[in-house]
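CORE FACILITY INTAKE
Project code: CF-77B
Contact: R.S. (postdoc)
Sample description: multi-component assembly, two entities in total
Requested service: structural model of the whole complex
Turnaround: standard
Below are the sequence entries exactly as provided by the requester. Do not edit them.
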Amino acid sequence: MSKNNKGELPLYEVFIRSKNGLDHKHVGSLHAADAEMALMAARDVYTRRGEGVSIWVVKSTDIVASSPEDRGSFYDPADDKLYRHPTFFELPDEVGHL
Amino acid sequence: MGVVDREFEKLEAAFQAKVEAEQRIEPKDWMPEKYRQTLIRQMSQHAHSEVVGMLPEGNWLTRAPSLKRKAILMAKIQDEGGHGLYLYSATETLGISRDQMFDQLHSGKAKYSSIFNYPTLNWADIGAIGWLVDGAAITNQIALCRCSYGPYARAMIRICKEESFHQRQGYEIMMTMAQGTEEQRDMAQDALNRWWWPTLMMFGPNDSNSAHSAQSMQWKIKRQSNDELRQKFVDATVPQAEFLNLRIPDDQLKWNEDRGHYDFGEIDWEEFRNVVKGNGLCNRERLQARVDAHEGGRWVREAALAHARKQEARKAAAAA
C-alpha cells in the first residue's frame, strides 16, 4: 500500500449477486467512509442497470488472500489424488451412464 | 551475469509465455516493473479521461432542449463518472493510491484524452460527442477487453456494455437535427466539422511515431495499433455520416477498392501536440474545474470520515 493516502477514505471490495440462485461475484472496489456509505456507493457505481439484487461490501484490508508464489506447494495435496475425479474409474460400457 | 539477473530473466520469460498463452495477469502475479508502470500510466489516464469527459457535457445539462434530453444526458454523465471509478479501482490493484492519481491529474503530471480540451459550443456538439467521441472510445475499448491485465480487461467489458447507449443517444441527436430545420442541419454539419479531426486524433500518433506501442503490443496491453483502430473507426463512421446526409470535412476521403478501406487525409499533428502539451482551447479551464470540484468536496469526505469514526467509537463504548 502507498504511504501517501492519509485522509483517503478506506477501500471496500464490492460483491454482487446478479439474481437469486447465483453466487455473489467480485465486481470491483470503491472508497467510502464506512460500510453504509460503501453500500450506497456500490449501488450507484455498480448497479445502474439492475445488475444486482444483493450487494456485499468488505473492507479490502479484511480480506486474507493466498499468494500466487506458493501456487505450486499450496495446492500440492490435491495433485496425487486422481481418484477424486470420476474419470479415474474405468467401467464397462454395458453399465451405461453412471 | 549475476544470480539475481538470471532469476529476473527467468521470471520475465515465464511472464511473457503466460501472456503469449493468452492467460490473464492478475494483481498479485509477478510482473515486470515496466509493465506495471505502463499500465498505471495508461489506466490512470483512461480514468482521468472518463472523469474530465464529464465536464464538456456538464456544460449542456441545464441547456438541453427538453426534460427528456436532460435526463438522458444526466444518465450518460453519471455513466462516465462510473467508468472513471471502475478504472481507478482497477488501477489501484497495481499499487498506486487514489490520492496519488488525483495528485498527478491535478498537478498536470498525468494526461487525459486531448479531445476534452475542445469546447462544446452548442447542443449539436453533444450529439457529435456521443456519436464520434464515444464511437472512437468504443473502438479503442473493444480492443482493450482482451488486454492481458485482468482487472483492466474486466473493467473494459463493463464499460463497453454501457458505452453503446452513449453512442446511440449521440447519433439520435444528430439524426433529429440533420432531419430538422435548415438551421438545425447547419448546426449538425458545423459540429461534425469541428469534432471530426480531433476525434481521429484520439487514436494517438501514427504507428511509426508511437513511442509506447511496440512494447505494449508485445505485452498484449494493446491488441491493435493506433492506425488500425483509426481505420476501423473511419470505415464504420463514413456510412453513418452518409445516412445523416452530412459531409465529413476531408477532401481526401474516398473508398479505396483495392484496400477495402477508406483513404483519408493527414491529421494536423501540430495541433495534436499543442493540445497534448496543454495549449488547447480548454486545458486550463478543465483542470481548474476538476481541482475546484475535488477541493469543494473535501469537507464532505472529512465529515463522512468524522461521522464514521464517531459511530465506531459509540459502538465500542456500548459494547464495553
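Facility notes:
- Chain B touches chain A at residues 26, 28-30, 75, 78-79, 82, 85-86, 89-90, 92, 95-100, 103, 154-155, 158, 162, 301-302, 304-305, 307-308, 311-312 (CB under 8 Å).
- Residues 40 and 91 of chain B are 6 Å apart (CA to CA).
Invoice: internal transfer
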